[in-house]
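Running log. JK asked me to keep both predictions on one page so they can be read side by side. First protein, sequence followed by its tokens:
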Amino acid sequence: MTASAAGAETGAGAERSVRTSRRGGARQAGSPGLAFTLLALAVLLVVSVTAGLAIGSVRVPPGQVWGIVSHALGFGWSTPDWSGARETIVLDVRAPRVLLGAVAGAGLAVVGTALQALIRNLLAEPYLLGVSSGASLGAVAVIVGGVNVLGQVSLSAAAFAGALGALALVYATARTGGRITSSRLVLSGVAIAAVLTAILDLLLLTTDRGNEARAVLAWTLGGLGGVNWSTLWLPGAALLLGIGVLMIQARNLNLLLAGEEAATTMGLDVARFRARMFVLLSLVTGVLVAAAGPIGFVGLILPHIVRLVVGGDHRRVLPTAALGGAVFLIWADIAARVVAAPTEIPVGVLTALCGGPFFLWLLRRDARRSTDRGES
């Protein structure tokens, strides 16, 4: 068989496998199983939001929570029987925080899902390209330097600028001969992240005020406190943009699962597609880190959990991961508020405590499966 004939046969086989996967995915996408999973997660999300608004140092009954929310939205279906203080707590203190938790959890889970497909590495997560380190450095510079040019949004703006700066450095160092490979991009991200982290540590060591170091430590561990309605629109817009583009590109993400050669055979420009997706995902991650700090493990473990339930088709995985990530981070934030009350634990600590053991179990399970396949 000639090389061209072999290549044609390979291309035909790849096309047949993709068509088969597409037909199977279409059947699965419309199956009651997926619809039931999404409906169950949507209901669980409503319950989680209710719990997030009700639970805290001041407990608000769920009936009052929805009464307050309905009145704020103009649907006065119940007679107000709550105090003004409770209304302020629900609407101005807890509601922005809970919504940010849902947005950040959904965004990190979706970004992690896409990155694992783009790099074909199950250890990939949203902070792989150094964006988190850049955002952290920007925020630390504002805290240590006492910069307050933009008022309340100074810290978020500096964090986002740092994320963009880190992304530019990573792309500048990874680009060689007009091309960017995924391995070079990842290595550049690791190197830039190490340098930026060293600069951040240097700023912490040279600051002479302990309160600033404590504030920096709290921010770098991730948290949802301090958000307000005026700053919530940007992460929400970033989430909608990211999910919208990724759902449109779900077929191309599925093609990458078959390998670069098969994806190229099916007409996908892998290098250009990856570059565009990396930019999009880095920008979404930068916005989320600027709003909530670097909250780890959400984008690493949620995609694995979702794939165990709905399979590997990204048309199924992406919406399920978004809902699952939102639910997970809301409950992690609730635990952060109540476990050591009145002291609040940074939510990033709890996500690491939950995600670390799960991921170790997942690695051991995959290792056992690989061993069993090798022995058979």
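And the second, directly underneath as requested:
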Amino acid sequence: MDNKKEEKAALKFIFIIATKEVLNCDVKFCHSLDIGIRGIFMTKHKVNANDIKAITKKMKEYIKASYPILKITVSNKDAINYYNRYEEKEKALSIQSIINDTVTFNELLGHYNYFFSNILENTKFINEFKIINLTNNDFVLIDNYKNKEFKNKKNLFNEFNKYNDWLNRQHIHYVSDINKIISDGKIEDFIKKNDIMIDNQMMEVAQNIVRLNKKIVFIGGPSSSGKTTSSRKLSLYLNSLGKNTVKISLDDYYKERDEIIPDEYGQRDFESLDAIDLNLFKKQLNDLLEGKRVVLPKFIFSMFHKKFEGEGIILHNDDILVIEGLHCLNEELSKSIDKKYKYKVYVSPLTPLTIDRHNYISTTENRLLRRIVRDNRTRGVGIEETLASWDSVRRGEEKYIFPYTDEADVVLNTAYIYEMGVLKVYVEPLLYTVKMDSKYYDMARRLLDSLKNFYPISSEYLASDNVLREFIGKSEFNEG
């Protein structure tokens, strides 16, 4: 069982009930963050510090009282009627898309709700939490606050807000709206519009790089964000603006498997900066900047081995070096180079689309689904091996990626509003192969349950330069 997911679901439930008690309003959870959940108080009242204190006090009362959180199985039809009666029509529509005859409601203090994950059985198991009140009735709900520090990541928040504004102009608020576009036969046109929006953002970044006369572009972000495709597309946009680019992937600088030291959990930490051959990278970077010819490595993941082939490359005075990789925001990679020459891009799929007001699409799980498909297709890695490594990947992101997001000059959003429908076609068969006796069975089933909300979308509508092609195949930038 995923205790973190169970605790987060219970904390959300308690927060919803306490907010209704104190402010007589509902909340909408918009998206996940590395430290918690960002959401909105659904009221015209301007929420203030005293309101937050009152909600916090009420939540602590519930937790201290050790109230049970019950599971109640109801028919699909009764659940739909319940949400229609309480004007939560998006919840009724999301349940309507689920094939099951029954759904499991959770009950706490006479309140009923439906979450797309398991939930703790008692309020007493909730650990420390904190509510951060932002502007415009936005909030961040932080779980396990004792181990986390809140930083107002304005760049990330602004990117979510920009995307949400675009969605509002398209009259799309929930997954059910996308499902209707699919059932109406209009998904191909929507995909084109969504792709144009993403590509326009890419062109703006390229124009800024040229305007600021930057010489090295670092593209970093967490696993399965689409860094490879983003770096290749950005290079093309820079080419269209008259700049020649030289592309380097940090993935090609992995150490040999036996050179990577196991972490405290006994696993080789492939997400660590120490997994990168920094000496080789720094030497080749300096050699390129000095105008020397350099033979770049090519890492073969199936063999976990570097190859050096070809005549090598030379960096000319007017060229722009485009480097992509997990650690590219980390100044350790290039601290000897003057910052005025560098431009850092944080890449991540940040979708503001939600299933309903209380269930959002996890950016973390979005990336996990991408990774499952890619690992199976290109790296010869089975689904259980990918699931087994995910905790290590997440720990690596918290250590090596998220602390450096504030150093980015710009956030490049690689999320497509329709992408879960595309991924569903590829990842569902893999998830079904996880057998009941596997320790990852519950995790696989939870992912399958979340995918039930999305209608499948054929990949035939996706262009060859679409970021999703990096994972599902037939990308013009990747082999295979």
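Observation for JK regarding the second prediction: Residues 3-147 form a domain with the Threonyl-tRNA Synthetase; Chain A, domain 2 fold (CATH 3.30.980.10).
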